[in-house]
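Bug: token stream looks shifted between consecutive jobs. Job 1:
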Amino acid sequence: MSSSERPRLVVGVSGASGAAYGLRVLDACRELSVESHLIFSRAAALTLAQETDLSVADVQARADVVHKVGDVGASLASGSFPTLGMIVAPCSVRTMSEIATGVTSSLLTRAADVTLKERRPLVLMVRETPLHLGHLRTMVRLAEMGAVIAPPMPAFYAKPTSLEEMVDQSVGRALDLFGLSWRPVKRWGQDVGPLRAEEG
């Protein structure tokens, strides 16, 4: 990207539980002056309706650019379109598995494949538990390909007082992987801790 262009981040939202993660990634991009390119899967629309009172149009309004999930000829399908990388938040097991095979059937997984081949950061906020051996092997394969597996885990040391704070901490730590520092993140040694062990 030229110095005059805003940095771009591809934001994929799959149908896994945790629509709030994708929403807050979009909000963070707006606050950080990062141009967000949203790909919202069909299954994500179902999860959104289950977990929130928002419509798909409400989510799209939070993004700078919206791409149709079936538009495999979009700019994001080419490595010549420069971005900081891509985050899938939340990432379903199906989406994760499709990316791992390289046999992509939508713009969401095609854009992830492009991100990997261009050696850009691909962060997958995988939402599934418990994990069987097939899931774990798929994650290993993706890690070997260069993806970062970043399940959203609560950081209790940050002493969250609400679900919103827990979501923001996970989102902010994922954005750290792109070199983006988001205000809500509580950092060890700055905002919390470190604690000194008692001298015995």
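Job 2, same session, no restart:
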Amino acid sequence: MSRRFVIEAVMIAIYGQLLLPKRSVEYRIPYSTVMELYDLKESEEPIMQDPEDERHVRDKIGEMIAFFEDPFNKKKLERALVAPWKESPPMPINEHVTFVVVNAVENMQYGETFDPIETEIILASLRLQCPVLTDHVEFQDKVVQGAVPIQLYDIDDFEFAVEEGVDTPDGYSQ
């Protein structure tokens, strides 16, 4: 069985190791974060501090956009957009990684503390009963301080997170 995580699309572009897990992983990606790739690609704001890393990440963002725009994947993506919380059919990346895009809907449930994308990530995690994988320390702190009932892992703990036998908040193992 593959390990599932809710993750922002840009995290996959920034952290290449996420595409090389030791076991099968399924990334549940809120659709709004796929759309955010376009904004990041066009933005002049730096994504990375090192210029070489910046070029590399922007290239990876371009590759991800091209992946989602591929006619076969675009058709799968469009299936998710027909209704709130609908999921796309699986989009295999390699033998161990699959993307599933989720038409997550932000409902202001956490709107005072979290921005809309953070809220979608939280709600997707709750609804899909799978942990969040992120590098946003501020977001992690707000989740802990707000006692939001989700499990989350820092990107630096990725290998640990995909290990066998890690339980989710509801006590089920993935």
